[in-house]
Amino acid sequence: MTTPKTNLQWLREQAETSEVLNRPLKTLKKKKKKKKKKKKKKKKKKKKKKKKKKKKKKKKKKKKKKKKKKKKKKKKKKKKKKKKKKKKKKKKKKKKKKKKKKKKKKKKKKKKKKKKKKKKKKKKKKKKKKKKKKKKKKKKKKKKKKKKKKKKKKKKKKKKKKKKKKKKKKKN
Fold it and tell me: pTM, whole model, 2 decimals?
């Protein structure tokens, strides 16, 4: 019995200094007991009500969805089977015809290469090209000579101007 009396004295000292514990000790004890009782009662009532509502809703939704899905699947399967059979027959016939046509074209090309008349014409064209190359070389040489002459004239003019300026300054 000594412990509770000492605790009450310690709480009274703190109540005078702090702003929160200014109320009397009887009100503090009553509120603590009431809060514990209310929390226990609320938890039990909520659990029972939620379980009953969830079970009823789930059973109704599952039965409706299953009936709709079965009807749609049967209709789609019938349409897909008819389309696949028609496409396979057409592809097989086209592939066989294309292979035969390609073989005939290759034989015709080999016969054209054996002619000797075309080879003689190519030799004559080569001689004409050689004459054109000689004319191009002469034009390049003339351009180089003209550039060299212009550079020499510019250098001579600059040297003469510098000598005249120096002589005039010395006479004065």
Answer: 0.11
pLDDT one-digit tens code per residue, 2-44: 555 567 778 777 766 665 545 555 555 555 556 666 666 666 6
The verdict on residue 60 lying in a domain is: no
By three-state DSSP, how is residue 172 classified? Answer: coil
Element (H, E) at 1: none
Q: CA 15, CA 27: separation in Å to the nearest integer?
A: 13
Full domain range(s) for residue 138: 122-172
At residue 24, the 3 state secondary structure works out as coil
User: Residues of 4-32 as b/e, b for ≥16 C-beta within 10 angstroms?
Assistant: eeeeeeeeeeebeeeeeeeeeeeeeeeee
Residue type, 26: K
- 98: three-class secondary structure by DSSP: helix
Long-range contact pairs involving 125-132 (C-beta distance under 8 Å, separation at least 24): none
Number of domains the chain contains: 1
CA–CA separation, 65 vs 79, rounded Å?
A: 23
Tell me whether residue 165 is in a domain.
yes
C-alpha span between 120 and 39 (Å, rounded): 114
